[in-house]
Every structure is written in structure tokens, then in C-alpha cells.
Design goal:
By secondary structure, the chain is an all-alpha fold. It has helices spanning about 1-15, 25-30, 35-45, 55-85. It contains 4 helices and no strands. The two termini are about 20 Å apart.
Length: about 90
């Protein structure tokens, strides 16, 4: 859940980023502007498309990672409830 929140914040930072960055290393320069540099770099570099992406592309990658994490967390909690055999926590 903590990484979901961190990825959400990272996405918002990307979305509102308006400062020009050098072409040297866009991921590094962009992630330096976030509060969670290590998480940002790790997340973006894990996607092969990030090496060719512009800032908008990096934001799209971050959003896709965020959505995947949210889906995985939701499925985890659903399976946990199903395995307990009780849905009274849900309804």
C-alpha cells in the first residue's frame, strides 16, 4: 500500500512537471525533482521503453506501473478474503 501511495505521488509530480531537462539522462534529471528519487529511478528504469521516452512518456510509464500495482494489491486482498471464506468484511 505504501508503494501505491509513493507511485501516486510520483505520477502527480511527473504530470505537473514543466521544467525543461537536459537530454543527458532524462530519467535521472526527472527523478531528482521527486521526493522519492530511488523509487522513481527503479520504477522507470525497469521498463525498457523508458530509455526512449520523453517526460510525457515517463509519466505514462509511471501511471501504468501504478495501475498494475493497484490491480495486484486489489487481487491480493480479494484472494485473502476468498481464502478466509468470509465476505462479511466486504459488505
Amino acid at each position: 500500500m505504501k508503494s501505491f501511495v509513493l507511485l501516486s505521488i510520483m505520477f502527480m509530480v511527473f504530470f505537473f512537471l514543466t521544467i525543461q531537462v537536459s537530454a543527458h539522462d532524462l530519467i535521472d534529471d526527472t527523478c531528482k525533482k521527486t521526493h522519492f528519487y530511488d523509487l522513481c529511478v527503479t520504477t522507470l528504469r525497469s521498463d525498457p521503453q523508458s530509455s526512449k521516452a520523453d517526460v510525457q512518456g515517463l509519466a505514462r510509464i509511471a501511471l501504468e506501473k501504478l495501475q498494475a500495482k493497484a490491480n495486484n494489491n486489489t487481487l491480493y486482498h480479494i484472494h485473502k478474503l476468498v481464502n478466509r471464506g468470509s465476505f462479511k468484511d466486504v459488505f
